[in-house]
Amino acid sequence: MKQNNSAQTEQTTQDKPSTAHKKITPTEPQTKIKGHIPAPGGCYSWGCKAEANRFNFCNEHYDFFKFGLIKKSGEPVPDFEKKFEHYQEYLHRISVRKVA
Predict the structure, then answer these.
(1) pLDDT tens digits, residue range 57-81?
(2) Do residues 58 and 52 make contact, with C-beta atoms less than 8 angstroms apart?
(3) Is residue 22 part of a domain?
(4) Number of domains the chain contains
(5) Is 64 part of a structural domain of the chain?
(6) Is the pLDDT reported for residue 1 higher than 70?
(7) Are 71 and 63 in contact (CB under 8 A)?
(8) pTM attached to this predicted model
(9) Which domain holds residue 52?
(10) Do the domain assignments include residue 13?
(11) Is residue 31 part of a domain?
(12) CB atoms within 10 A of CB 67
């Protein structure tokens, strides 16, 4: 009788899916970004209406993203002014190299 009971419990536990491996789905889509909703196919940067070319940014804002001036969501980073000064110096150094 004990063997029959244990066989039944094994069978019922095998029939139930494991709760540890359930896939959690978000309730809201990931496209909603802190008050800024970009146009479909448009640049994610705040205030930009250009067409997105790379990583959902236009060419200019892709460079900003690559340099760390804006986040992936398109909002500026907290220390934008400081990083923007470094970015301008970087662009100046590149232009000097091209001329020389």
Answers:
(1) 898 889 999 999 999 888 899 999 9
(2) yes
(3) no
(4) 1
(5) yes
(6) no
(7) no
(8) 0.57
(9) 37-100
(10) no
(11) no
(12) 14
